[in-house]
Design goal:
There is one protein chain. The chain has about 210 residues and is mainly α. It has 2 domains: about 1-45, Homeodomain-like (Arc Repressor Mutant, subunit A); about 50-210, Tetracycline Repressor, domain 2, CATH 1.10.357. It contains 12 helices and no strands. It has helices spanning about 5-20, 25-35, 40-45, 50-70, 80-95, 95-105, 110-120, 120-140, 145-165, 165-170, 180-195, 200-210. α4 runs antiparallel to α5, α5 runs antiparallel to α8 and α8 (about 120-140) crosses α9 (about 145-165). About 25% of the residues are buried. The model has no long low-confidence stretch (mean pLDDT about 90).
């Protein structure tokens, strides 16, 4: 048994939820893989739904923390802040790619816990992204575009590597779990922000200032 049985339970649960599905995984399956007594799961999480809720809460608390760190740079400019948000979120998701994949897959279902997440964590995420993008438009850093659609495009870019691994590999010839993928993908999203969102004058002025 691992010293940290709670961590072992979570790791085992995420692996099994990904491979067998939430409904197809039993408490005994999780306990066996984690090397703990099933009573340990009841002690820490009460039941399987409690374990699922813990996974969601832990994931999104840390996710929002990374988003807020990027948002805190907004006084340095919307472009700087948004790039840092994207970089932070990508690196956070790649640090625990299995948990990320499981959470994003669960979000495609219409369940009570998903509705709760939508009404709390994702509302805050949308609010902060909206603030940064609108700030960029006011300061003429960003083009005047549809804010909701920009958020949808950005979210798609952030989630696609985890939900469509094989398709991403087919298009980019890289697998998302490879370390190099994170670095390359961050650079490409930087370029997306510069070419799709930013006013051309902003990029031109920055290039001139760096000479």
């Amino acid at each position: 048994m691992r010293t940290n049985s709670k961590e072992a339970i979570v790791d085992a649960a995420v692996y099994l939820f990904n491979t067998k599905g939430f409904s197809g995984t039993s408490i005994r399956d999780i306990a066996a893989r984690a090397g703990v007594n099933p009573a340990n799961i009841s002690y820490y999480f009460q039941n399987k739904n409690g374990l699922l809720e813990y996974c969601f809460t832990s994931y999104f608390e840390n996710y929002l923390h990374e988003l807020e760190k990027g948002y805190s740079l907004i006084e340095d400019g919307a472009r700087v802040s948004l790039k840092k948000i994207v970089q932070n979120l990508l690196k956070y998701q790649f640090r625990d790619i299995e948990l990320t994949r499981f959470i994003l897959r669960e979000l495609t279902l219409d369940t009570q816990i998903v509705r709760e997440v939508m009404s709390t964590y994702q509302v805050k995420e949308r609010y902060l992204l909206k603030k940064v993008i609108e700030r960029g438009m006011r300061t003429k850093e960003f083009r005047s575009l549809s804010v909701p659609y920009i958020i949808l495009q950005l979210k798609s870019l952030l989630t696609t590597p985890f939900l469509n691994v094989q398709y991403v590999n087919e298009v980019l010839h890289l697998l998302p779990h490879e370390k190099y993928f994170v670095e390359k993908y961050c650079r490409e999203l930087d370029r997306w922000i510069d070419t799709i969102l930013c006013e051309p004058s902003v990029i031109t002025n920055r290039k001139a200032a760096s000479i």
